[in-house]
Amino acid sequence: MIGYYLRYAQVLLRFLPVAIALLRDQRRFLLFGPPRRVSTAVHRERAERLTETMLDLGPAFIKVGQVLSTRPDVVPPTYVEVFSSLQDEVPENTGGDPMTILEAELGDDLDLETVEPVAGGSLAFVYTAVYEGERIALKVRRPELVSMIERDLRVIRGIVPLLAMFADERQRYSLENVADDFEAIILKELDFEREAAIMDEIGDNLADDDRVVVPDTYDELCSERLIAMEYVEGRKITDEDALAAADTDPTEMATLIARTYLKMGLVDGVFHADPHPGNLAITGDGRLVIYDYGMSQRLTPQEQEDIASLYRTLVRRDVDGLLNTLVALEVLEPTVDRVAVRRVLELVIENLEGRSEITWRAIITELLSMLQDFPFRIPPNVMLLVRVGTVGEGVCRSLDPEFDFLGATRSFLVDHGFIESELEALLAETRTDLRESAPVLARAPARFDSVFGQLERGELVVRTDPVDPPSGSDPAVGYAVLAGALFVATAVLTLHAQPYELPSLLAAVAALVQYVRARR
Fold first, then answer.
1. Distances in Å between the alpha carbon of 418 and those of 360, 425, 428, 430?
2. Residue among 339, 263, 254, 258 at smallest CA distance from 304
3. Record's superkingdom (predicted)?
């Protein structure tokens, strides 16, 4: 317990300078005074200091930073952008020597003299070794890591109520759930048996695409703290020389990355959620290799359907559909003021339409920044998919600065039947209009017959007061005015879902004919 309090004090002291600066932004003298206006450059500097602090505090806080990079409901956009650069760069000796786990788990199965270190992450270290005459890769969890992370998660839970005291109502709504989200994501990453199972599942789902490589696992060697897998050598995906050596077009590779991740999330329902350049590589023959499945997730069929709807409504700028989807995904409360949110979403679409270039990151940033006035949160599954979109788009655009991620998304959605092509969408809307209009049109003859019958029987009378026409008046002018008014009404009625413009158009033409006859 003493270790917990010492760690709590250490964490508070490390974050205290930035916390005081942020509080002074609200009140210059902490307890009183006007708010301060702070430039974006100053916020970026603070975010970089926070990033360095999280790196120094160790694995749990590195993961917290990575999670916060997808939580604009908790931190401002500048901090989101800087936190997204956090990589799993931790010294090998942090959390104990992973070789002790190798000796305990595989000492009888491997020649430990063949073990060679490859890379270190926040939760594990990667080695290669010789097994049955072949070189394999070993991802080994740091031995003392679980107790360290459990302690730090308790510290984070203790700090969250303190943060909530100084947060506004909207941020407080998100902070109530953020500690649970951190814990769920980090503890899943610590379970290497789960990671190996997801790795195998994704490998099976992508087996038909020979352009993508998911390393096979050696089930007999895997455990809760160790994954043994096929050793697939590749060079970093953003290495221009690697692409040139493999004779691979950058745009083609960017398209492959985008479509592979869309397939994982929208079609298969299980996806790799950490597509940063360190986890993507290219083989000598130009194939895409995906490493490190610790940050990954399964979706329920309903979640798949809702997330596909999110992509579809964003691509098609469907405001009503987007609002319904955000409620279904629990980003917004069902009791939210829908009229107010709809106005905000319409403004988001208008702002995006006015830009010369629209990216996935721009859409998400604009959407979430405009929702700041409403209580909203980003559930873990949605958060991970937002991360896939933003990080994946960043990788694709580093390969091809002109890469159209939204265009690739639209093409994928059309190819897999999530949305119709423009022609099919137009035909579908026309069919819907005709189906809804059929009952009205079917009743029209009976109504006309009823009106004509009333006229014949003298039951329908229009009473007017006689008015002496002014001298020199032209009776044709009345028809001209009527025809003009009906043409304008026709133009307005074309925007209506029902085909009311047809009767209006016919009446306008009739008035125009009468005008021509009167003029003659």
1. 18, 12, 14, 19
2. 263
3. Archaea
